[in-house]
Design a protein that fits this description.
heterodimer; A: alpha+beta; four-stranded antiparallel sheet; three-stranded antiparallel sheet; B: mainly beta
Chain lengths: 147, 135
């Protein structure tokens, strides 16, 4: 019996996880490419009436160290984050915590169909990279006059 | 009981003690940290993207270093968040400092969302070579 209850719990948890994932995405198209947990950089995605807004949290990185590209509806953010350690010209430095990510990274986000890859702006400030992609004119909400 | 786990063993993460999970759950985020020690003292780096200088608070009290702040990301009005890997804008993290560190002379530097803290070791606690006298 114990075995079964464990099995059920696992399924419940799996269910919950799926629901959680679904709720995170909300109406945003989910894709195996766009979901990833614990990777660098963490991402937030938001929408306005006119744009799709993507924020990548890239503390410690300069704009010229980050490469942003769009190809076939996929937004790719990549770069390499150098380690902070070892910059001191010091003898036997001892390292304790090492929680911050370092090394090469690459994240891919699938854009909704109504995103226009021709109209993109990206800016980087205080370790936050914001990519703003305009929606196609036809997909923007508009009021319809009742005849 | 103290809320902050005390580290007796120096060789382990002396200054990198996570604050008791209970206090940091739900509404605040625990920023990732790197810690390095040399004979001059301790250097640490914390990831605090979206934080500006005026939204950052660093205090030392009874050998506890506490760093907290609020992150803001410039975003257009009427933004509807669809997916978030970072939800909390507030972050807190505390560290217990050993008595050999000079808490009066901590240097803090914030750049591109990374906070760098330099905590010098007290002069008398720095390692020194001891001359052996000839008999």
């Amino acid at each position: 019996m114990k075995h079964w209850s464990l099995h059920n719990d696992l399924w419940n948890e799996f269910d919950q996880l799926q629901q959680q994932v679904a709720s995170l995405f909300g109406g945003f198209p989910s894709s195996i490419r766009s979901y990833s947990d614990g990777t660098f950089p963490p991402l937030n995605v938001g929408m306005t009436d006119d744009t799709v807004e993507i924020v990548a949290f890239v503390p410690g990185m300069k704009p010229d160290q980050i490469d942003v590209s769009i190809d076939q509806g996929l937004l790719t953010i990549r770069g390499e984050r150098p380690t902070s350690f070892g910059q001191q010209d010091n003898d036997e430095a001892r390292r304790y915590a090492q929680e911050r990510f370092s090394g090469a990274f690459r994240r891919v986000i699938e854009l909704p169909d109504n995103a226009n890859p021709e109209e993109v702006t990206a800016r980087c400030a205080n370790g936050c990279l914001t990519v703003s992609i305009a929606k196609r004119q036809s997909s923007r909400p508009r009021a319809i006059t009742v005849q | 009981m103290n809320d902050i786990t005390n580290t007796a063993e120096r060789e382990q993460t002396q200054v990198a003690t996570r604050e008791n999970q209970r206090t940091t759950q739900s509404l605040t985020r625990t920023p990732a940290v790197d810690v390095e020690e040399t004979s001059h003292g301790i250097t640490m780096w914390l990831d605090v993207p979206g934080v500006t200088r005026d939204k950052l608070e660093i205090e030392v009290h009874d050998n506890t270093l506490r760093i907290q702040g609020d992150a803001t990301v410039p975003s257009p009005q009427k933004l509807e968040l669809r997916y978030a890997e970072i939800r909390e804008s507030r972050f807190v993290r505390s560290f217990t400092l050993g008595g050999d560190l000079d808490t009066a002379n901590i240097e803090a530097n914030l750049q591109d969302g990374v906070l760098k803290l330099t905590i010098p070791r007290r002069e008398e606690a720095r390692p020194r070579r001891i001359e052996i006298q000839a008999a």
